[in-house]
Every structure is written in structure tokens, then in C-alpha cells.
Amino acid sequence: MRSGHDATAARSRDEDSLRLASGTFADVLEERFSEWRPTSAERDVAIMVIRGFWISEIAALRKTSEGSAKVQANAIIRKVGVSGRSQPMSVLIDELLTGQIGERP
């Protein structure tokens, strides 16, 4: 069993790792946005898609129609070069896990 000090130190290391991963993810996402060149609306929608929001939720949050949100989501999917809504996130995660950022096949 861990002592209180050991548990606190482990939690602190975990929090540091999470902050580092979050920063790295944000850096990778910015690099991809530079490559994909989304419009401002597409960028907003892309972030929401990556976060797992449904088209209806995206439309409600952006105060737009579901049709507009779907068109913007599909534009991002085309720019990324994948075939489905979950795949932009997969591209980013693969780059982070393999350490091959920007080296997609």
C-alpha cells in the first residue's frame, strides 16, 4: 500500500504527464490545421467533432442549422483525407502514439 506522500507524488506525476500530453496534442492539432487550412467555422466544427459532439449538438452550440454543421464537418473530413467522422481524431492519436507527427502514409 502506498503512503500518503507516495500517492501524492504519483498523482503529481500523472497530472504533469496529462498536461504534457494535452500540450502536445494541441501542438499537433495546430500543425494539422495549418496543413488542412480550415475556415474559421470548419475549425470550430472540427474541434467539436474531435471532442465527440453530435452534429445536432454542434448546430445548437453554434446556433446554426444541422445542415450547415454537417457540410462543415464533411469539409473537414475531405481536407483530412479520411472517410468518417471519427477518423480525424484517429489520425491525431496515431501521430501522438507513434511519435511520427506529420509522417502519415
TrEMBL record:
InterPro entries on file: Sig_transdc_resp-reg_C-effctor (IPR016032), Tscrpt_reg_LuxR_C (IPR000792), WH-like_DNA-bd_sf (IPR036388)
Protein name in UniProt: HTH luxR-type domain-containing protein
GO annotation, biological process: regulation of DNA-templated transcription
One GO molecular-function entry: DNA binding
Occurrences of domain HTH luxR-type (ranges): 35-92
